[in-house]
Amino acid sequence: MQRNQTSGQARILSISLSSHGFGYAIMERGSRLVGYGNVVIKKNKNARVMVHIEKIITRYQPDVLALHNVTAKGTYRHLRVKKLHRRVLALAGKRKIKVVKLTNRELRSALLGDERGTKHEMAEMLAKQFPDELMSRLPPERIFYDSEDARMDIFDAVGLVTALQSRHQANAPSTNLTNASS
Amino acid sequence: MASLPNYLLTHRKRLSLSQEEVGFLIGAKGSGKESMVSREERFDRESSLKTAIAYELIYNKPLRELFAGLYEEVERDVAERARLLGHRIAGKANPKREEVIKSIVSKTTV
Which member of A34, A35, A136 has the closest CB to residue B16? Predict the structure, then answer.
């Protein structure tokens, strides 16, 4: 497949790694949400997540991979997730897929216009933007003593691709396509 | 960017239908209803013409959109063959045929 590095015309895969497993979303031609979902894995998480991600990459042949920037200041991720993140980067490098990393702040500013917006606000906004796809999957707002609903991984992933698209449409010069090895 | 072979999964999820339900609607028989739909959605199997028409009716989208990648592939192949045919019949006086071939080439290369 001819690879087009202009994110407005490229097929973008976003992956949001979490303690449950991961969420993913695929967007193409502007803002067409082609695929999305989440995978919950109980045992041997990293190895099994990698198998799933490889299958998704093979199936959708993305031009760009969007990930959370797990090393950004103020971002906390478990060591296992950080290791997994490096494995995903290595896989993207092997498949010659461009990688874009977004911080939580960038994500919130792009989607909500407010760096201090909450995850649930983002999820509600995305559910309104893609009602057919996401409205039925919107989990109830989390109460502080509950752990996060695994379905939020879908919204994290859709948020990543949407933020990347809106950045591209606004022609923000800061969208940084980096090599997967970085 | 080349399109995916098909967008069946995208449209099924949008309508909140299960693979089993779609399998029933397209007339798949036996216990492998879901697996047939699943293989077609994963691009492991190409749909028959009857099934493709059933998908068009279920998802209310044209075949060109549902099977965008396949459509593009066929379009390229037809254009290539039309070009070959154009060379073959060049000089043989039949303006109507030449016009038809030219129109196929122009339609498929837009």
Answer: A136
- Chain B CB contacts of A136 below 8 Å: 16
Question: B75-95 b/e with 16+ CB inside 10 Å = b?
Answer: eeeebeebbebbeeeeeeeee
The verdict on pTM exceeding 0.90 is no
Number of independent structural domains in chain B: 2
Shortest Cα–Cα distance, B96 to chain A (Å): 37
A11, A35, A133: residue with CB nearest B1:
A11
Say yes or no for a CB contact (<8 Å) between A34 and B43: no
> Can you say how many angstroms the Cα of residue A4 is from the centroid of all Cα atoms in its chain?
19
Taking the CA of residue B11 and the nearest CA in chain A, the distance in Å comes to 9
ipTM for the assembly: 0.77
User: Residues B52-103: pLDDT tens digits?
Assistant: 999 999 999 999 999 999 999 999 999 899 889 888 877 776 778 888 888 8
Partner residue facing B13 (CB), from A59, A61, A133: A133
Residues B75 and B61 in one domain: no
Alpha helices in A24-151 (DSSP H): 45-60, 79-94, 104-112, 119-129, 131-134
Strands A64-68 and A12-17: parallel
Q: Residue B57: is it exposed, middle or buried by C-beta count within 10 angstroms (0-12/13-18/19+)? A: exposed
Task: Give yes or no: residues B28 and B47 share one domain.
Answer: yes
Range of the domain at B85: 70-109
Contact A45, A180 (CB under 8 A): no
